[in-house]
Amino acid sequence: LFPGTLAGVIDLAVDWMTDLKEGVCLSAFWYSHEQCCWTSNETTFDDRDKCPQWQKWSELLVGQSEGASAYILNYFLYIMWALCFAFLAVSLVRVFAPYACGSGIPEIKTILSGFIIRGYLGKWTLLIKTVTLVLVVSSGLSLGKEGPLVHVACCCGNFFSSLFSKYSKNEGKRREVLSAAAAAGVSVAFGAPIGGVLFSLEEVSYYFPLKTLWRSFFAALVAAFTLRSINPFGNSRLVLFYVEYHTPWYMAELFPFILLGVFGGLWGTLFIRCNIAWCRRRKTTRLGKYPVLEVIAVTAITAIIAYPNPYTRRSTSELISELFNDCGALESSQLCDYINDPNMTRPVDDIPDRPAGPGVYTAMWQLALALVFKIVITIFTFGMKIPSGLFIPSMAVGAIAGRMVGIGVEQLAYHHHDWIIFRKWCRPGADCVTPGLYAMVGAAACLGGVTRMTVSLVVIMFELTGGLEYIVPLMAAAVTSKWVADAFGKEGIYEAHIHLNGYPFLDVKDEFTHRTLATDVMRPRRGEAPLSVLTQDSMTVEDVETLIKETDYNGFPVVVSKDSERLIGFAQRRELILAI
């Protein structure tokens, strides 16, 4: 219930504060741009985003909506609002809750593998991360709220588990609650409860028994139901990007889908290497001593470059939603500026492929600039001392590339329908290619290349569309991106940040050969008793209690057995006492 409620509040607040950078609703200042025009009786189908109740800052302050002076004033206030939001966010994190920065998923993975990070899931972290998450997403930085929502949900799970002795005194039970909370976090982030459960199983949890699967499913269900009750998107739907396609895909399109998978794998490799190199430089140079200055500088650069381009000025979620959409008869977007046949009598949902108009060509070069901008700025943004998610920026990169490829394939099919690759399935006057589907496949490929997710990724994207027939393109792109990315390195972005931060994370997928003896790293002093050790499987809780009472060592080596004494790890005395 709590993660679903917080996610709904965050979504509503982000929509309002994002639009606040450009203007305000006169009829009700707490309405976002979309909500303001929904309530207007003067909104037209030709331009559904304009209504007299919504005014830009230039109209409100100087009474002008057009011209150079109005543009400069709106530009300046856009930058000022972005800087204000970012400065407030980084200041709150630095002063009140340093653990509220970052995505949170690397640390959640580490905690679920058995390590304890004290205070990381505390009440202050929950409060500050919730507030600052709204601020950083609203500032326009190339960040998402989906990853941090997993951290927020786990903070909720940790807080409520501490109220019951059954969970507060048992770390194993507590971690089961955290696994379920992680599933609830992804469920409310995307509106994908099944994908949330699989994400917790595939990406986050170290130990995931059957009873945890059921609890995670129930938590994701309740969280999704709570979010749906709040209805933050205003469309009576649960998913973040609802799309509906009316054209099936064809086997000949599998080749561009695989190419998008290759692009996603290469993008994932490039991003991980460049971002880790930049984060390492931040940790080892004076740059890391000035986190507030870094956030202000990156925010200023982002706002200055983003405003002139309509595809980078809007929120990243709105951009992805537009790229996913299919072009209907009532669409006024530049991406849907095709040259229509005046004699066309097709139904609204069955519009044939058409030649691109001037708006499409303008949108293509604007999208190309947006793609380069998103690739570069995300590398420098992720990892700053503010809440930062990576799901949405990665999906945006893939969606932009996919939409451009989709438009290219669509125009090839229209102008060269007699080519052998189009002849069998794309006849003249037919609706053959859906560019929005390519955007969706590209988004899945890039997200998979960065995180190395496969099964949960496909299920999340499937839940976004509700179409079973598009699972094969998604699977092909996801698997291809993982293969390509794995060819350059097995680590995803979260594992890379775990190693960068030096967390003691033992990946359950890795196999270890224990060759070192305990006596190779520690020996008892002369005249003292033999080395006191913990064994992997043969010790009971009573044996551990006896060992603690009879010795005063600060820690004990963990070995395979008394016979081999091959070293596995080291357990601190303090942690053993707390666990018992």
From TrEMBL:
It is a multi-pass membrane protein. It comes from the Eukaryota. It holds the Pfam family Voltage_CLC. Keywords: CBS domain, Chloride, Endosome, Ion transport, Membrane, Transmembrane, Transmembrane helix, Transport. CDD domains: ClC_3_like. The chain crosses the membrane at residues 75-100, 121-141, 177-201, 254-278, 290-307, 363-383, 390-409, 437-462. It is found in: Endosome membrane; Membrane. GO terms for molecular function: voltage-gated chloride channel activity. SUPFAM superfamilies: CBS-domain pair, Clc chloride channel. GO terms for cellular component: early endosome; endosome membrane; Golgi apparatus; plasma membrane; synaptic vesicle. Residues 522-580 form the CBS domain. Belongs to the chloride channel (TC 2.A.49) family. This is Chloride channel protein. The gene is Clcn4.
